[in-house]
Amino acid sequence: MKIHDMTQIAIGAALLASIGSIAIPIGPVPITLQMLGIMTVASVLGAKKGGLAVIVYLLLGLIGLPVLSGSGGLAPFVGPTVGYLLAFPIAAFLIGWSSERHHSFPALIGYNVLFGLGLVYLLGSLGLQAVFGMTFIDALKVNIPFIIGDLIKAVLAAAIAYKVSTNPQMRKTLAS
C-alpha cells in the first residue's frame, strides 16, 4: 500500500472520529453524524480504502478514544450499539465497492440507503435484540426515529461524493 493510500485512509478515519464523537442521546442508540461520514468516506475512497478508514476509526474507539458517540473503549462494542458498529465496515466496503462501479448521483443515494441504512439497521437491530433480549421487530422499531435524518444524510453523502468525483482536480488527487 502506498503512502498516498495510507494518508487517505488516515484522513477518512480522522473525519469519522471528528464527527462521530458528536452525539445526541435519545434512547439506547444516540443520534450521530457517523453514517454521514461513513457513507461519504466510502463513496469517495472506494471499498478498500473506505472500509479500512472505518476499521481504523473503530480501532481508535476500541483503544479508548471518545470517538464513538462520545465514548470509547470496550463498552460500545458490548452494549446496544454493537450491531451498528460491526455493520459500519461492512457497509463502507459495500458502498465503496458499488460506487466504484456506478458513480451516478442516483446510484450513490441507492447504495447509501441500501447498505448505509438497510444493512446497518438490520445488523444494529440484531445487536439490540442480543443485548436487550427484545424481539427482532421491537429492535427494528428502535430505528424509526432515525429514518428521516438518515435519509437526509444518505442524500447529502451522495451529493458530496458526486461533487468530489466530478471535480477534475479532486479526481486527480484521489487517483494519485
TrEMBL record:
The chain crosses the membrane at residues 6-29, 50-68, 74-97, 109-132, 144-162. It is a multi-pass membrane protein. InterPro entries: BioY. One of its GO terms (cellular component) is plasma membrane. It is found in: Cell membrane. Belongs to the BioY family. PANTHER family: BIOTIN TRANSPORTER BIOY. This is Biotin transporter. It comes from Exiguobacterium chiriqhucha RW-2. The lineage of its organism: Bacteria, Bacillati, Bacillota, Bacilli, Bacillales.
